[in-house]
């Protein structure tokens, strides 16, 4: 699914709605029921069930419980995950967050709303410092780079930097967002703005690494190549790991969401493999300290 919001009449799908809908569809098919049979259990129309499974509408808790009963799903963990996902989706749809004050392109409006609702983000970045960890100077220099102009959003530069700093508050305000970031060593050999930007950014990373909610690890050249070197991705979690993950995958000219299921599980496995090969947190801070002395 592409990151652009999809509209149907006055309805809009959401990433979390599509994630929930896919789970309900999977359960219905595994149980051998049709949409009309599900609709009968809800005393609703077949169109409503189709909209629920497509992520077009928020889903009420009683409907989830009724469908689970019909499908023979009695595991408290499964039902709880569905209920929690539906709750987060309903809250996200009606949320009026700080990000709405900014002129983000559609993809970032959706991403930041999810980031605000998340409990954990695992970020792999092969080329740049992850957005949540960037200094204003780094973010501004990167934005001014001619090679980045094709992805430059409509917001003014000052607004762009202010929004980055607003996002940073999730790392320190309670309940703090847990961030696990793994960064390829190449990102530290190509700083926009040269040494002054590099020094400030490395100082910032070492400071952020002291936060209990932040883990920063470096993937060194010596660890060799792997399948994720051609693009970055963020795994966004809203409860226990793996329960309701969605993945934002970013390429040079296109982005997409991977909404749970086997797709998200594959990215989860890939991230953990990358983390296993990366320097540990203490080694990563030493790497940054040594690099800082060379600048």
Key terms for this structure?
alpha/beta, 434 Repressor (Amino-terminal Domain), Endonuclease, Chain A, 2 domains, six-stranded mixed β-sheet, two-stranded antiparallel sheet, 8 strands, disordered N terminus
Please give the structural blueprint.
Layout: E1 7-8, E2 11-12, H1 15-31, H2 35-42, H3 46-54, H4 61-71, H5 76-94, H6 106-117, E3 120-125, H7 136-144, H8 157-168, E4 178-184, H9 194-208, E5 214-219, E6 232-237, E7 246-250, E8 255-258, H10 261-277, H11 281-294
Parallel strand pairs: 3-4, 4-5
Antiparallel strand pairs: 1-2, 3-6, 6-7, 7-8
Helix pairs in contact: 1-3, 1-4, 1-5, 2-3, 4-5, 7-8, 9-11
Give an overview of the whole structure.
The chain has eleven helices and eight strands. α1 packs antiparallel against α5. Helices cover 48% and strands 13% of the residues. α9 links the parallel β4 and β5. The protein is α/β, with parallel strands linked by helices and 295 residues long. The strands form two sheets. The protein has a six-stranded mixed sheet with strand order 5-4-3-6-7-8, with helices on both faces. A two-stranded antiparallel sheet has the order 1-2. The radius of gyration is 21 Å and the shape is elongated. The chain folds into two domains: 88 residues, lambda repressor-like DNA-binding domains (434 Repressor (Amino-terminal Domain), Orthogonal Bundle), CATH 1.10.260.40; 193 residues, Endonuclease, Chain A.
